[in-house]
Amino acid sequence: MLRAVLQPLQLSKAQAIVTCTRAFRLPKASSQTICHLKPVYARELHLFSAKATFSTVTAPSTMAAEDRTEIQIPLHSGTLAGWSYGPKDGIPVLAIHGWLQHADCWLPLLPYLPSHLRIIAIDLPGHGRSAHRGTGMGYAVSDYTRDIYALLEHLQLPQVHVLGHSMGAMVSFLVAGAFPERVASLTLIDGVAPITADDDQAAARLRDAIENWHVLQTKSQQETGMSRADAWERLKQGNPDVDEDVLPILFERGAVKHADGLYKYSRDLLVKQVTPMRFTLRQVASFARRITCPTLAILAQQGLRTAPPEETAKQLDALQRLMPSLELAEVAGNHHVHMNDPAAVAKVVVPFLHKQSMDGQAKLKSKL
After folding, report:
1. In whole angstroms, what is the distance from residue 269 CA to residue 224 CA?
2. How far apart are CA 36 and CA 94, in angstroms?
3. Residues 194-228: pLDDT tens digits?
4. Torsion over CA: 96, 101, 119, 143 (sign)
5. Residue 267's CB: how many other CB atoms inside 10 A?
6. 3-state SS, residue 36
7. Rounded distance, CA 152 to CA 106, Å?
8. Residue 147 needs a FRET pair 20 to 30 A away by CA distance; which of 58, 95, 99, 216 works?
């Protein structure tokens, strides 16, 4: 049985309201769309929610600057892009997106988050506006762990709260296990530990990954541009469980217009490579034992599952025995519930983040 953590919100009205204005261009030659997020009091949630209202207007060619600050961080593996939001002396929360997405996947949830937090949302390498890895380099989940460590070192953050979705949740789990002293709390959305594999699958998986890598290299070299409308349609087909009124968020940061007027997706095609080596259950357990920070895992009822329900329940039970600080919550929705229904996620996330960021936590300052 999943144990939900549904505490009443402790924020004042002034704290809870964050207004974001976002500008998008939909793939129609004759019009552009601007999305205004305005806070609306939702009595049943006991918090301030945001409802998107769309109107066709003349909009800038790029996303409005809002109050977010774009960041470009030079790391050994290449430039890491993203944005920061909130007071510069706020308590830092590192937000890590899922596979094939980018930092803007957190925009729907942003208006709900406590105003004393400094949100640092990044594009993982090979995603969004971050650099691609060099030829022959991979995008394994463990590789991203190295990137997060380098980021914390660059920002001189001794400790940070971490918010992750899907693959980003798995990366967060590994970071907290490898460097427990650097993570103050974990908030994981529809993803917890890395996907595991048995020892006897290792050789076959490595072969599949190498053959798959060669196929993707060829495809990557043959990628051609497409019209804005075609790029939009491709985004819709590739994200069937993301609500259409949310898709502009993924399009704006994920597609790039080139000099010839055609669009290409900014992600490195090689991020689709089959993972060459997976952790075993025993290896994942070794990470779980080292995670001592408060951890909240939110599972979507129609979310991503890599095992049958009975096996998933056993795995979660085993994780809770290894991680006494792990709390589980379940929300209605699919794998992208944090974008489709941010109010449902906020009802669980906001009390947890507020409590963990205020309970005896010194304000850890970022250089951003």
Report:
1. 12
2. 25
3. 988 888 889 999 999 899 888 988 888 888 899 99
4. positive
5. 22
6. strand
7. 20
8. 216
